[in-house]
Design goal:
The chain is an all-alpha fold. The chain is built from six helices and no strands. Helix content is 83%, strand content 0%. The model has no long low-confidence stretch (mean pLDDT 89).
Length: 201
Amino acid sequence: MTRQEKALKPIREITSQTKEASVLLTKVLDQKGNGEEKYSLQIREISEVCNAMVRQTAERLKHSFGSAFDREDIYALVLGMSTVVQRVEVLATSINQYQPGHYTPEMIALVDRIRLIVLELDQLIPMIKRPRELQERLGIVQGIQRESQDLYRDAVGKLFRSRIPTTDALMYKNLYDDIDAILERCRYVSGLIELTSIKQA
């Protein structure tokens, strides 16, 4: 394993967990599965694993005397990815608590965008030392993020133009806000990756 691969290993490990959590989130909203509670429990377990990985990374970096990357950058990326999983857990918990009668097409589409963004973030990590490739890939991520923001705004607007009961409208608004919080954390992580690449250039 090269020095770069060793330095990136904690980030790759937590990104792998984040990918799994994002896939499970799509299953939470799979109306055919009826396994929301089971998938939410698996997401919670992944979140606990990620929290442990953050602590382990912090401890390892304390005793690291040299790396292909700054220790602060590695820790920031690991912590950033863990917060994505935490927000996924919050959404899954909210869904279990609210037990919505159905999932809107917009909710399903937004959760799938989260899955796609996380997959792209995983592709970005090995490109940190290859800024030209990274910038091209970041364009894809940013395109999905813009599309997600437009979809979120349209979904909320449609929600308040509908004739559903106020309590239902507020419930769906809260769920949309939880989704938007995940997207915001993904934007934060993609920004961290770009900043780390600039520093390493």
